[in-house]
Amino acid sequence: MIVEKVNISERYKLEGSATLTCYIHDSYRDNTADYVMPAVIIAPGGAYAFISKRESEPIASYFLANGYNAFVLDYSVAPHCYPTQLLQLACATDYVKSNAAQLHIDASRVFTVGFSAGGHLVGSLATQHNTLNASFGVELDCKPAAVALCYPVINSRYVSGNSFDNLLSGYGSEERDELLGKLNLDNAVTCDVPPCFIWTTAQDTAVLPQGALSFATELLNCGVMCELHMYPRGWHGLATADEQTNEYQPFMDKVHTWLAMCDDFFKSVN
User: Fold this and answer.
1) Which run of H or of E encompasses 159?
2) Among 53, 158, 230, 231, which is disulfide-ready with 211 (CB 3.0 to 4.6 Å)?
3) Cα–Cα distance between 54 and 69 in angstroms, integer?
4) What is the pLDDT of residues 212-256, one digit of tens each?
5) CB distance 199 to 231 below 8 Å
6) What pTM, to 2 d.p., does this model score?
7) Please, which residues bridge with residue 184 across strands?
């Protein structure tokens, strides 16, 4: 395996200090035949205040073991505010796609996975990828083939923490209210959103599951391919939902299945 770190902010001349840690399978074949793999770009959570370790390398490790090249985006957090993080993820996606040959990646099978606030970030790319170039004067190939939103921040009504305060810290009240029109993601769904895999838990009190349900409803209304799982037990931030990232509880045996189901969902996307 090859591990390297790319400074996305420096490469794309962006605000902040985003880095992309790349976990790339080496070739283990006896010949020099070309090989390509799907890729997954991971956006950890942390309320736009920090980057969660439990939602970083442990997630990459799972997808690596299941035939993906994996990339973890360490994006900028507060006091950096919108659209800094969105542009960083868009550029990371463009980087992986535009360097697909060197990275041994199938550019048509680049997926993104986000957790909590990282789920909001991935959801923002899913809902804004088709307007991003015109809005911000960039030229990026940044549409994922599909996305996974894990206990995602969706709408400010369903969040008890300060994710939106951190994301919009640089804006006044009028600007903030205007931006929430598209950053409350269930208000921003169109038929151009890529296929979505979503999971949450009924007992999540930090990011209420109603947000995931509302987002899935809008996807259905727009005819977007989606899969939704709401597990009956479990707290916010379960990540891999096993002993690697949590003190084990029996309910995790069920929640841990999200990883295999997400993999299956990605494989089902044409």
Assistant:
1) none
2) 158
3) 19
4) 999 999 999 999 999 999 999 999 999 999 999 999 999 999 999
5) yes
6) 0.96
7) none
